[in-house]
Automatic annotation (TrEMBL):
InterPro entries: Glycopeptide_resist_protein, Vancomycin_resist_VanW. It holds the Pfam family VanW. PANTHER family: EXPORTED PROTEIN (PTHR35788:SF1), EXPORTED PROTEIN-RELATED (PTHR35788). This is VanW family protein.
Amino acid sequence: MKKIYFFILFFIFVLVVVYPVSAENKLVNIEKAEVDQYGLALFDPLFINQQKLEQLMDNLDKQLYKEPQNATISDNDKIIDGKPGLAIDREKFQINFRERFYNSEDEKLKVPMRKVYPRVDRSLLEEIRGKELGNYVTYYKENNKERSHNISLAATAINNYVLFPGETFSFNQVVGKRTKEKGYKRAPVIVRGELAEDIGGGICQVSSTLFNAVNLKGIQIVERYTHSREVPYVPPGKDATVSWWGPDFVFKNMYNQPILIRAFSKNGKMNIRIYSSESATYFKGNTT
């Protein structure tokens, strides 16, 4: 694997990370901290401010961090392996930093990296795809291109999502803010009982389909709101309206196993299926 290098000049360390300490200069940048706060001998020529070092590592991590990719299931039901990410090995970095600063004249420091493995891998998907817990279908008119497009985007956002035992699923957080930049279009929405148009119109059909798919004994509905008027794609009272600045649809996994959400939107059909392990059971008495 190609190693990642990030070069740090020691004169920057002196200004930002390291403060001089000596018998002649008994204070460490008196505006910031007193020497005795760190419990260091006054004759020590240098000491490292741990807080500054942590900030340095945080900044490096922001630049070099590579997020891992979860394993997923394709539309033809084949598992696609995930990929590990990368993060700074903070323990090794601190050791290397101290050794290089105190004992070496080299002005460049190699940043050690470690692999970050995804939470969802092939073996987990193979385990939790075996038992269908819920399945719900709704229908929409394909000739409304903008609304159909929004439904497809939201369905893709929740597809392959794995919710672990005890965790909560927030539709707004998982799908994210519906914006033009993300590809969402203006389409009909219901506002105070009246039809209007807004960015992301139609995604409530996805959240409503999801509600009916997860309306199971092992799922606790934490937050759900109905529209201010009936919608045509689900029976009265079986909908779940969502809005980025308003209502959300939230539920909690009360099963003893992770659950997998599979969402498909094609040819005017919105289908959501919920899967888990064959050994999945729920904690009785804790659901709504």
